[in-house]
Structure formats: C-alpha cells, structure tokens
Amino acid sequence: MNTSDIWKDFHEALLTFIKKRVNNKYDAEDILQEVFRKIHSSVHLLTDEKKLRSWIYHIARNSITDHYRAAAKRKEAETSFDAGLDFPEPSDENSNFNQVVSSWLKCFIQGLEEKYREAIMLTEFENLTQRELADRLGISVSGAKSRVQRGREKVKELLLECCRIERDRLGNVIDAQPKTNDCSCTSCENSFFGNLRPF
Predict the structure, then answer these.
(1) Domain-embedded: residue 7
(2) Mind spelling out the 3-state secondary structure of 134-170?
(3) 110 part of a folded domain
(4) How far is CA 192 from CA 152, 175, 177, 178, 183, in A?
C-alpha cells in the first residue's frame, strides 16, 4: 500500500467530496494536496487495509475543518489589520503624520522575507487582486491570500513594536512617534523623522 496507488484509487472521489463542502475550487485542490500529504506521512501506521477508505475520509473531513478554522482566523486578523493599519492618505494638517507612517510601512515592507514583500508590493502598490497575484506567482489563490495576510501581519507587528500611533475617528494619523532612539522606523529615510522625538 503506497501513496501513489491511493492517489490513483481515491483522488478524484476525494476531490468531489471536498468540493461539495468547500466553495472555492482552488481551496478544494489545496485541501486535497494537504490530505495526501497527511496520508503519505502516516500511511505506514495503518495496519488494516480494510479501514483504508474510512481512514482517508476521516483525514479529509479533518482537513476541511482545519481549512475553515484557518480561514476564520485569517479573516479575523485581516479585519483587525484593515481596521487599524493601512496606508493613510494626506489630509490637511495631518498630512505630515500620514506621510510619515506611510513611509514607515513601506520601509518595513522592504525588510520582509521576499515572498511576503513581493505579495504586499504587488497588491498594495501595483493594485493586483489576490487572484491576479496567484496567477503572476504561479500559486493557488488561497496561497496568495495567505502570503498577503502574513505579510500584513508582519508589517503591523513591526510597526506597533517600535512606534506609537494615534489616529482620529476618520483614520488620519494625528500623532506618530518612535518609541526609542534605535527604533527601526528611524532608520527609514524620510525628511519628517528629524521632527519626531521618542517618547
């Protein structure tokens, strides 16, 4: 009993099974790959071949559950990110702070691991949709979404780790201060930084 034989016998039926429970065909294909990754790593532990079918479908059901749990967590994190951190547009007297924070974000993005940096740059600055990003990079849509989300999380972590940001009810930055003299944001080249003092 090996993974190749199991793939031949079950992959089409499994994909149909998954597609009935997951709306996005790309997500279904990703889940199928995850199911077979788990099968490959554990098939040697299955001693009774009569239980193979039920074992495989048990893995598939668990993988679908894991998919929805992960999607819910990503959505929650994305909502949190979008609500509290974006690229602010200049607005009247707040324009300097908005531009400062935007520059910090861009600087932090440059320091990301390449796959996350590329995903953020293409979606935030070249306005690619996540589906277009997936096509450009040759990855699944869920993989593209994951890269963008993880990249955003990393940028947010870096910013909030070293900077204190205050916003008004419209989202304009009304105060932006590095927390220490050696804060990462102070290494970003921006003419506004000279006017900012750590608190």
Answers:
(1) yes
(2) HHHHCCCHHHHHHHHHHHHHHHHHHHHHHEEEEECCC
(3) yes
(4) 24, 12, 11, 12, 15
Q: Is this model's pTM higher than 0.90 or not?
A: no
Closest to 130 measured CA to CA, from 145, 114, 108:
145
Token pair of 167, please? 């916003």
Instruction: For the beta carbon of residue 127, count every other beta carbon within 10 angstroms.
Output: 8
d(CA 34, CA 94): 48
Are 116 and 191 a contacting pair, CB within 8 Å? no
Distance of CA 92 to the CA centre of its chain: 33
Q: What is the pLDDT of residues 120-136, one digit of tens each?
A: 889 888 888 888 999 99
Cα gap 179→162, rounded to integer Å: 5
Tell me which residue range forms the domain holding 70. Answer: 3-76
pLDDT value of position 75:
62
Q: Is residue 85 situated within a structural domain?
A: no
Structure tokens at 181: 């003299």
pLDDT digits (tens, 9 = 90+) for 73-113: 666 554 444 444 454 444 444 445 666 677 777 778 888 88
User: 21 lies in a domain?
Assistant: yes
